[in-house]
Amino acid sequence: MKLVILDPRPPELQALIDRRQQLGVDLYDEVWKGSHHVVPAPNAEHAYVGHRLAIVLDPYARAAGLAGTDPFNLGEPEDYRVPDRGYHRGAPSGVWVATAAIVVEIVSPDDETYEKFDFYARHGVEELLIADPAERTVAFWRRTSDERYELTPASALLGVSADHLTAAIDWPAPG
């Protein structure tokens, strides 16, 4: 479900955003060209798949010289996304990270994973890894020369196929 409130932002909405920040429950909130997207914490299946992916991907990332992170702010203060994981050429620092070699998104019900592709392309993200717990699949997308993504059977950066990762994940029971 989406809710759009046009500016000026009502004080009650700003109070909600401020309260989410104070409580630390805004980790996944995003700002899309100034529009605030309030995103809930992931469900248990999402979190479980994220953990399993981190374990399975770690040796491939280290072999490729990439540093892995959990959720991070990709972009700038008024236009950023929060991928579930990232793999970087060196350890990133600071609040705002300009790009990543690979962004990992885990699909949740009603999320905006596929609407983020253009943003990631503009920020130079080379590959996307999309995991879908409901479908029990992993897919890689590679950025093309015209700043779009095309589905590809394997990660050129990690040297592993989507089929291998799909089989390596101990997927949670459908729920």
Helix content: 25-40%
Query: What string gives the helices and strands in order?
Result: HEEHEEEEEEHEEEEEH
Major beta-sheet overview: 6 strands, mixed
Q: If you average the pLDDT, what whole number results?
A: 92
Strand order within the widest beta sheet: 3-6-8-9-10-11
% residues in beta strands: 25-35%
Low-pLDDT ranges: none
Tell me the total number of β-strands. 13
| Spatial separation of the terminal alpha carbons | 20 Å
SS field, number of helical segments: 4
Radius of gyration: 16 Å
What class do helices, strands and sheet pairing give? alpha+beta
Shape: globular
What would you say this structure looks like, in words?
The protein has 175 residues and is of the alpha+beta class. Helix content is 26%, strand content 27%. The protein is built from 4 helices and 13 strands. It has helices spanning 11-23, 44-63, 117-122, 162-168; strands at 30-32, 35-37, 67-69, 73-76, 79-81, 85-88, 96-97, 102-106, 127-132, 137-143, 149-152, 154-155, 160-161. The chain has a 6-stranded mixed sheet with strand order 3-6-8-9-10-11. Strands 5-4-7 form a 3-stranded mixed sheet, with no helix packed on it. A two-stranded antiparallel sheet has the order 1-2. Strand 8, helix 3 and strand 9 (127-132) form a beta-alpha-beta unit. The longest helix has 20 residues, at 44-63. It is globular and about 50 Å long. The two termini are 20 Å apart. The mean pLDDT is 92.
